[in-house]
From TrEMBL:
The keyword Ion transport does not apply. SUPFAM superfamilies: Alpha-L RNA-binding motif, Pseudouridine synthase. Residues 6-77 form the RNA-binding S4 domain. This is Pseudouridine synthase. The lineage of its organism: Bacteria, Pseudomonadati, Pseudomonadota, Gammaproteobacteria, Enterobacterales.
Amino acid sequence: MSDKTEKLQKILARSGHGSRREIEGYIQQGRISIDGKIATLGDRIEVKPGTKIRFDGRILNIKESQKTVCRVLAYYKPEGELCTRHDPEGRPTVFDRLPKMQDARWIAVGRLDINTCGLLLFTTDGELANRLMHPSREVEREYAVRVFGEVDNAKLRQLTQGVQLEDGPASFKTISFKGGEGINQWYNVTLTEGRNREVRRLWEAVGVQVSRLIRVRYGDIDLPKGLPRGGWTELGLEQTNYLRQLVELNEETVSKVAVERDQRRLKANQIRRAVRRHAQVASRPAGKRPASSSRQNTGRKTTPKGR
C-alpha cells in the first residue's frame, strides 16, 4: 500500500466537506463513491488528478494534500452578518466579503451569532478547522462583554464555578472587570468551548443581560488592531503554524502571504527601474535621444539584457 494513501473521511474533512464524524455517517449511508464504486468505512485512497469522489452523485472538489497550502484569514465580523454560506432570506453572510479563490474555499472556524461581532478565523484546511473547533482541544476564546444588570461577587463566583444550562454545565475560565458605570459594565471573559450563545446564556443564568459582545481573541490570535469591521487580513506563516501546532498538525513550509508580498516588492522594483530609465532618457541631449523615445509611455514592456 502506498504511503501516500489517507482515510477517505480525512481527505474530505480537510477539503471542507464536513467533520470526520459527519463524513463517516455519509459513508455508512452509501452516499459517497470513489471512481464509481460505493465507498465503505476504512477506505484509504491516494488522491490523484483523475480521482473522482462523488457525494449523492455530485463530484466533490478535492485537492492533492501535498499541493494544498494552508491559508488562514482573521476577519472582523460585524453585527448583522450570519455565519452561513447562503441565507434564504438574502441577509448578508460572513463569506460575502472574503477574497475569492478558484481551487479552494474558505471554511469558518466556529461561529458567532448574528448579534455578536469580533474575531472570526477562516482557513482553507478543513482538518485544521475541525480540530480547532473540537471541544477536546480546549482552545481558549476571549470576549469583551458589556452587561446590563447588577453584578456582585456571588454572581462572579457562580460564573467561574459553573452554572447548569439546558445543554449541560458551563463556566467561564476567567472573568476580569474592565470598567463602566452603574449597571452598564464591561468584562473580559474566557472559555474553552464554543457552544451556541454560550457567553450570553451564562450571564442570563445569573440574571444579567448581555448588551454587547465582541470576540477579541482565539487561542493566541488577537483581533488585529486597526482592522475595520467587515475587514480581513491573512495570517503569516508563523501564526498559521502556531494554530497547526496547537492541534497537532504538521507545520506549513510555504505561505501565500509571503508570495504575494514578494510579488508586490517585485512590482515596486520594476516601477523604480522604469522611472530610472525614463529619467536617463529624458536627461540626454535632444539629438541623441532614440527615435522611438516618444513610445516610452505607451505601456510597452522592455526586457533588460540578461534578465
